[in-house]
Amino acid sequence: MSNTPPDRSPSPPAGAPAAAGLTSVDNALWLLQLIGQRQALRVAEAADLLGVARSTAHRLLSALRRRDFVMQDRPNGAYRPGPALNAIGLAAISRIDIRRVARPVLEELQEQSRETASLAVLEGATIRFVDCVESVRSVRVGNRTGVVRPAHASAVGKAILAQLPKSEIERRYPYEAIPAGTPAALTERGELERQLDEIRGQGYALNWEESAEGVSAVGVALRDTSGAPVAALGIAAPSSRMGSVDGVRAFAPLVINAAERVQERLRSSD
Fold first, then answer.
1. DSSP secondary-structure letter at 41?
2. Among 21, 63, 104, 234, which lies 20 to 30 A Cα-Cα from 129?
3. How far is residue 234's CA from residue 254's CA, in Å, rounded to a whole number?
4. Number of Cβ within a 10 Å radius of residue 65
5. How many CB atoms lie within 10 A of CB 1?
6. In terms of C-beta distances under 8 Å and separation of at least 24 residues, what long-range contacts does 69-74 make, across chains too?
7. Residues β-bridged to residue 80
């Protein structure tokens, strides 16, 4: 989902009053976007972000829960993305069937690296892992299919962002400050833009414990025949096994080669 709610350009910062005259449908759609981005949202937070009463926020969230767009782990707990929301995202991806095309290469990439190989797509300012082949090692990065992470804090996310024009980066990150992830993650748009320039030059992106502590990764963007980025391939491994950024960087040639093979398969399937 996009990082900018429909008919709101850009989204106000957390706690800012919402514009007047918004419909229940618009509020419900914005709630879906917020839950997709944050992965967890409480009634009080939803009410503050929408600028409505808590009873109104609770009513909207309850309606979304009845339709399986959101779910709760326990009564009165935070609302999280539900199966219907995930199904819609995966259905959109299936239009180009990138998962079917990439799967054989993903399996080969895992065998070659002996680490977890993943396929991800960009959703606004987040990335969603849509397929994964998990490492068979006892200490490994687990299967992340369906998991959402901040794009600026992940190797696959930064790989895709680096292929977008500057105007798209500004649309996804309308403020100079970027919401913090782990202590290692970027926090300023200017810093992100400088890193994206470097990624364009080298052809791959790196992540050293930016999205999750103890996890490092390398990612490469996949582009369609027009050159637009459609997804990214990545290898993720425990930082303890990699030892340093150079350790995970050593996987870059493997991922670049895998991305080229996926793009060849995409061209031949047209």
1. B
2. 63
3. 10
4. 14
5. 21
6. 69/32, 70/31, 70/32, 70/35
7. 71
DSSP state for residue 205 in the 8-state scheme: E
Rounded to 5°, the CA angle 7-9-13 comes to 120
7 within 8 A of 40, measured Cβ to Cβ: no
Find, among 164, 215, 206, the residue nearest to 186 by Cα.
206
In DSSP notation, 152-221 reads GGSHHHHHHHTTS-HHHHHHH--SSB----STTS--BHHHHHHHHHHHHHHT-EEEESSSSTTEEEEEEE
pLDDT tens-digit readout, 240-266: 999 999 999 999 999 999 999 999 888
31 neighbors 45 (Cβ within 8 angstroms) = no
Q: Supply the pLDDT for residue 85.
A: 64
Decide if 136 contacts 27 (C-beta within 8 A): no
**What is the amino acid identity at position 97?**
D
Residue numbers in the chain where pLDDT is lower than 70? 1-22, 73, 83-96, 226, 269-270
Amino acid residing at 236: A
CB 221 within 8 A of CB 232: yes
Query: Would you list the DSSP string of 118-161?
Result: EEEEEETTEEEEEEEE---SSS-PPP-TT-EEEGGGSHHHHHHH
* Domains of the chain with bracketed CATH: 1-93 (1.10.10.10), 95-269 (3.30.450.40)
The residue written with tokens 């996009």 in the block is 2
Helix, strand, coil % over all residues of the chain, rounded to 5? 45, 20, 35
Both tokens of residue 144?
């992340």
Q: Residue type for 65, please?
A: R
